[in-house]
From TrEMBL:
The keyword Transferase does not apply. Residues 33-100 form the HTH gntR-type domain. It comes from the Bacteria. This is Transcriptional regulator, GntR family. It comes from Acidiphilium cryptum (strain JF-5). The keyword Hydrolase does not apply. The lineage of its organism: Bacteria, Pseudomonadati, Pseudomonadota, Alphaproteobacteria, Acetobacterales.
């Protein structure tokens, strides 16, 4: 789905101090696309990128005012987000961002593992000049964002890197399937970037994948991708210890049970 178009942000509203609500001032909904779908995407992105952290209230009145919408499409979007365990709706109390559910994150990781391992091999054999240039430009931008410690930008570039590989190896449809399954996992990924040396590690892993693709070496690219995807298990355990308040009560138990099966 196209990103909502931006317009100059308004100033002077006290609610603009909230990073998520502040970001809404720069958005204009596209009349050619259904409002519910756009609102869902806006809030989902806010949750995944931690502008709406676990426990944050969803200010429905302010969101409606900022976007110039009625409550109906917002409520429909919230119901979709609740079905994905991204928000918690309590009648008469309001809606808040749900904690990170580790089992949902690991389910998303299984989808990534199954599909991205396949598409990276296909991408190595289907690589062409257009994708080479796009991936090279993405890697250059990643290095710049990492050096500047611009983690919001680095996360978006990380997403684009994997999207490009999926579209080269398969199609945009496959990427939409992957993206739809990994919202909880993406919250963990975004939470991990500010950790010491984490972004640099991710960048090095991306470079290894990129090198395999540029050499048209499917096994080298796949091995680098597997190393990259498997790192999530270590990241989860570290983040649960550091940010326990962001995770569901069963997070530690689920994470201890999780792991890559032998021979997988």
């Amino acid at each position: 789905m196209p990103r909502p178009r931006k317009q100059p942000a308004e100033t002077g509203n006290p609610a603009a101090e909230d990073p998520f609500l502040a970001s809404l001032g720069a958005l204009r909904l596209d009349p050619a696309i259904g409002k519910t779908a756009q609102i869902y995407t806006i809030i989902r992105n806010g949750i995944v990128q931690l502008k709406l952290p676990p426990g944050a209230a969803i200010n429905e009145r302010e969101i409606c005012a900022r976007l110039g919408i009625s409550r109906t499409p917002l409520r429909e979007a919230i119901l979709q987000l609740a079905a994905e365990n991204l928000v918690t709706v309590v009648p008469s109390s309001g809606t808040s961002v749900a904690p990170i559910h580790i089992q949902d994150a690991f389910d998303g990781q299984m989808v990534r593992d199954a599909l991205e391992m396949r598409v990276v091999r296909l991408a190595a054999s289907r690589m062409n000049l257009a994708f080479e240039r796009a991936l090279a430009a993405n890697m250059a931008a990643q290095r710049k964002a990492s050096a500047a410690r611009d983690f919001d930008e680095f996360y978006l570039l990380d997403e684009d890197f994997h999207r490009l590989i999926s579209e080269c190896g398969a199609s945009p449809t496959v990427w939409r399937i992957i993206n739809g399954a990994k919202a909880q996992l993406d919250r963990i990924r975004r939470l991990g970037f500010p950790r010491p040396h984490h972004a640099e590690t991710v960048l090095a892993e991306h470079q290894a994948i990129f090198d395999g693709l540029m050499r048209r070496d499917s096994e080298r690219a796949a091995a680098a991708m597997q190393t990259h995807l498997d790192r999530v298990f270590e990241t989860v355990r570290l983040l649960i210890a550091e940010r326990r308040d962001y995770f569901s009560p069963d997070a530690g138990e689920v994470a201890q049970r999780a792991g890559r099966p032998a021979g997988a």
